[in-house]
Design brief:
The protein has 463 residues and is an alpha/beta fold. 30% of the residues lie in helices and 27% in strands.
Length: 463
Amino acid sequence: MTMQRETIDVLTIGAGGGAYPAAFRLAKAGLSVVMTDPKGMMSGNCLYEGCVPSKAIRETGEILEGQRRFANLGLPGQVQVDYPRMVAHKDAIQARRYAQHAQELATCPNLRLISGSARFIDPHTVAVATGEGERHFHCRHIIVASGADVFVPPIPGAEHCLTSHDLYKPDPILKILPERMVVIGGGYIGLETASFFAAFGTRVVLLQKGPQILSGMDPSMVAMLLPLLNANIEMILNADVERIEAMGSGRRVHYRQGGVTQQVEGDVALMAVGRHPAIPAGTAEIGIEIGKRGIVVGPSLQTRFPHIYAAGDVNGQVPLFHAAVRQSLVAAHNILGGNRALDYADFHNVPTTIFTLPGAAYIGLTATQAAAQGIEVITGAYDFSEDSRAQILEAMGGGIRLFFAPGSLRLLGGWIVGIDAGQLIGEIGLAVANGLTAYDLAAFADQHPMSAEGIGKAARSIF
């Protein structure tokens, strides 16, 4: 095995949302850029096992649930999901997008992608283990964008569980629809997956360790969302999983609730208790600070070394793909500025969507957070029971809540539960980010008959 050495301007550890936007921007500015990634492909875990494949499956579930609503009105026909064909559809989308990214990469000068695992040797030197040997790069700038991995807690029998990786990666392990599923974890990944499979007809039992599903999210939003979810989901709170047992082709999960050990069985068990940052080897050894969330950075995305940046899930600030993209561009702009902080990431006002069926989304300050901080807000409200689009689609649960500052009536945040939540939160987020007021939202003539007109109606509700 031979070792190659090369001097370059920029190296990214990772090739996902925290890496490639910066890589393209810097390469187009004339810098020599190398992206490294163990998969050897662009787009990171979002395309491999996250947002894109899971939402491909989610959209099928949404179509199914909509069809069933109309079937209940006496309309003819009720389709069932062909799960293997849906998985093939998901795989095809992933393949199509990988080909698209490969074409983008091929047409960009000054930019290369190397398949391999990176480790720090010193603050300017990164070693990349490839199939042809270890290569060393001396880098003027480094962007750590290695993302996050599935967290599997040390529970006896955890190896008998599937993870989101197993469900959503190309050519996934699960190719046949299970009749029964046990989901361990009531965060957004666990609840979304439970929602998808319940829509397909699977009976799902979800075990949540704490007292609230979607722990840490606004309790009022969660309280509005949960009754709207599929009745095939049974949620058990305060359930501390003790072990998972394989029994032939099925799984038995033992958990403790109220001092009593109980059990639940399923054809499959899904471990969905969260993700943790993927810290490259050598990071701590060269003196980069690692905190509870991940690599420690401020809004400029710089570590204690001004030329080393950490963008995306690896810093744990906002573990979402679109946040990683924005952070990647912040790092690029500051590199072009000579490692001076000229651009800053906003960690607080990033739209977040829970892609259940139906979904929920939020951004900025909520009424619950404001109360905890002693901040007064004025709440604008709109319920989808009066919404024309929701009525057309027989999906009238949920609504919009907007939170304004007294006096200025500047929009501080908001949440949506129900129809089009993931679509609508962007408009609210743009208003938050640009300091718009209730007057601005009320004056805008949003399109009818679309659910977005509820934003203006929620704003007008406070007058």
